[in-house]
Amino acid sequence: KAGVTQTPRYLIKTRGQQVTLSCSPISGHRSVSWYQQTPGQGLQFLFEYFSETQRNKGNFPGRFSGRQFSNSRSEMNVSTLELGDSALYLCASSLASGAPVGNEQFFGPGTRLTVL
Amino acid sequence: AQSVTQLDSQVPVFEEAPVELRCNYSSSVSVYLFWYVQYPNQGLQLLLKYLSGSTLVKGINGFEAEFNKSQTSFHLRKPSVHISDTAEYFCAVTGGGIYNTDKLIFGTGTRLQVFP
After folding, report:
1. B95 in reach of chain A (CB within 8 A)
2. pLDDT score at B52
């Protein structure tokens, strides 16, 4: 079974641009979450989607948005990039078949975004 | 609000020695606890998790952890480490009375460095 895939793996953008990152969950997984990892702030939760609905959102500005498609694939978008958005963006998927009870999340390799 | 504290940012140890990575959490209600490992340029891999039941949890690669409710701790241990265990280790928590999410709250990580 293929794992969580994220594209692209590396991105270089300049300030003010926007970027879209893609995540394909493990087949059969309906929940997708996004995390931002930086040396200064560590791993921080961005959003969580389940069956195309945003179920939870972290404390990030409105420039960060996401969505989930009917095939459970997810995208996140960052508009008006800032230097501080440089980070590793990790996507995770889980089965989440019912009320979450410590569902194991499977992480992708991440997308390394560098903002110049 | 839930939080996770990993007291040691770095733990150096010689090969074949035992190691303990410390994790304390803050929550007034039941939580689910996880340990993840991150190798360079990779995503996170689940080592083990505690949902309920036996407080001693065994995971992959010879790791184990003990849930201690009175001390709100979930320390990770391995009796004999290998060079290949060199990585970043993250403790994480979810639940805490909020059951409609898989959102993970992570500690700041512990860098385990194994020397020959």
Report:
1. yes
2. 81
Contact B104 A100 (CB under 8 A): no
pLDDT per position as a tens digit, B29-42? 778 899 999 998 88
Mean pLDDT of A40-59: 92
Q: Between B13 and A2, whose confidence is greater?
A: B13
Q: Which among A90, A94, A110 is the nearest to B102, CB-wise?
A: A94
Burial of A36 (0-12, 13-18, 19+ CB in 10 A): buried
β-sheet with A74-78: strand ranges across? A5-7, A19-24, A74-78, A64-68
Q: Which residues lie closer than 8 Å to A28 by C-beta, 6 or more apart?
A: A95
Residue A66 has pLDDT above 90, yes or no: yes
Q: How far apart are alpha carbons A43 and B84 in whole angstroms?
A: 23
Sign of the dihedral through C-alpha A28, A33, A34, A35: negative
B64-68 and B24-26: which strand pairing? unpaired
Ramachandran angles phi, psi of B85, nearest 5°? -80, -5
B9 touches chain A (CB under 8 A): no
**Cα nearest neighbour of A108 on chain B:** B43
Residues in chain A: 116
Distance set, CA A67 to CA A23, A24, A81 (Å):
10, 12, 18
Residues of B numbered 18-57 whose beta carbons fall under 8 angstroms of chain A's beta carbons: which are they?
32, 34, 36, 41-46, 49, 51
Flag whether residue A60 sits within 8 Å of chain B, measured between CB atoms: no
